[in-house]
Task: structure prediction
Amino acid sequence: QRQRYEYFGYAKSGVRWEVTVGTRNVRHALRDVDASRITFEKAEPGSPWARQARDLYEQRAVRFRRDPEAFVDICRSYENILWAALDGGEFLGYVISNQEKDEIPEMYAKTLDGFDRMIKGWFALGGVSKVRLCVPDWERALRRHLGVYAETIRSGSSTQARILRPRRVLKALLTAKAGYAALAEGEMGFEIEGDSFTVRVLEGKVEILDGAEHLHVLGEKEATELFACPFEYEGRPETPAGWFPLPIYASSPDSF
Result:
């Protein structure tokens, strides 16, 4: 509940896209996709599949720390299951699902063509008529691809976050966002809990400079809302186009 988290300085943060795909979508839109060789096996700690799943996860633009020895346990949070998707026995990608297999917080493939084969193969397992997938905002190519045949796609907030070190967070996440989205050039000055600094974006590069003019004086919670909240709210300062919200995203394994 939003207000409960606000008492401790947290705010609604980041963008999550929820995508629903049903059997009819697959039957018609993916009728020419060959998924006959696709199988799924549970990935166990220390297995080659777990190792390759983590390697694929590490390619994400923004990610949480999932050490090799803890990767499978993290993916299994909330009684989820980590599956390796195999194409004729070769690793193609991985899936994290709930026990019922209809909620998928993560599904990644090496290629978009492989993703389609994984989706079709998932329904071939039987037992589900519709799945809900969660996709981070920076996976834009995947989201556009799913937009061709998904039943619904809608956006919402990803998680509740509290930004404790705004300089470091702004530098890291604005730099990451510049890698997949256009950020308007410009600068903003802030004073947050007594710390004054300027954020500058020039030619796609992000700088954090000591001191600032034309300060926006913010408390920690106000700063978190400005930097991370995915929707407009009364009293929000004007900011350069594309800067915010920062690409904060936590799938269920990382929010346990």
Q: What stands out?
A: DSSP finds eight helices and twelve strands in the chain. Helices lie at 2-6, 23-29, 48-57, 71-75, 112-124, 140-146, 166-178, 220-228.
